[in-house]
Amino acid sequence: MSVTQTILETIKAYPKIMIHRHQSPDMDALGSQGGLANILRASFPEKEIYMVGGPVDKLNYLVEMDTVTDEMYEGALVIATDTANEPRISGEQYKLGELLIKMDHHPDDEPFGDISFVNTKASSASELIYDFYTEFQDELVLTKEAARLLYAGIIGDTGRFKYPATTSHTLFVASKLREFDFDVAELNREMTEMPENVLRLSGYVMENVIVDENGAGMVLLSQEVLDRFGVVDSETPAIIPIPGKVKGMKSWGIFVAQPEGFYRVRLRSKGPVINTIAKRHHGGGHPLASGANAADLEEVEAIYQEIKKLVADYVKK
User: Fold this and answer.
1) Rounded to an integer, what distance in angstroms lies between the CA atom of residue 80 and that of residue 10?
2) What are the DHHA1 domain coordinates in residue numbering (predicted)?
């Protein structure tokens, strides 16, 4: 029996399913989580199916989380989507479930779960969930809302089909999802609009990006800068692509101060593999899009020096 067949049979066996995703969710985290939840609710209306996790902040136009109690996890199946390692699962209650399934597309460097389905060739976890649906479409139902969420997840993780993970299959999946009658124009507006304070922070990023002669860049967002613009960390993903607009930029890091004193690090690349850097600093992710943490400004500088060396070596090849 294939792992996907095992997952379907396991889903059938449980009357209660709790679906989690990663902390600080992006569109793919919520798209895959919500897409799977809607597919399973339509396919198995007799089951109790919940979406669980922390705040979704400005992405609440996609989905809202359900309210659950510890007692509801008794005898429940837990599924975690778009989550590379167990510590990143949003919602500690997942540990209370009876069985844990991982459905993800990140490099499987830190396996977890009783059943694991990982496809690193998928552009996104949302694409992976769609493929799971199509494999068993005689038994599963894809709704308009599920299509909207999976489409949003794919758009988010491919940067509107600009990133290298976009394949002909990705475009095929997106085209099949667009056959459903959801308002794609409204969805695009919701995905591109940003609050005025984030827009003004974008201007600060453009003015203060540092880039060396090889195309290694960085932006530091101190707590003072965040307070000046009235921006919190969960609002900063919109500024991640900005340094990549600099001609010649090959890889960059955005360092965002956290209230606890450390810095959240977002790493992006147009060629050099940067998840090796992330793994050395309490993080991980895709070869060209990763995340890490820096304890202080000294580690921030150390990470930037690693980016500079990585890019310099890349340029020499």
Assistant:
1) 14
2) 246-312
The reported pLDDT for the residue numbered 274 is 95
pLDDT digits over 201-259, tens only?
Answer: 999 999 999 999 999 999 999 999 999 999 988 788 889 999 999 999 999 999 999 99
Domain topology for 3-191: inorganic pyrophosphatase (n-terminal core) (3.90.1640)
For the chain, the structural domain boundaries read: 3-191, 197-316
* Fold of the domain spanning 197-316: Diaminopimelate Epimerase; Chain A, domain 1 (3.10.310)
Q: How far is CA 50 from CA 40, 77, 278, in A?
A: 10, 11, 32
Residue (of 277, 288, 281, 265) closest to 310 by Cα position: 277
Alpha helix (H) ranges present in the chain?
3-13, 27-43, 125-135, 144-158, 168-177, 184-192, 196-208, 223-229, 275-280, 297-316
Amino acid (1-letter code) at residue 73 = Y
- Cα separation of 36 and 19, whole Å? 8
Residues in the chain: 317
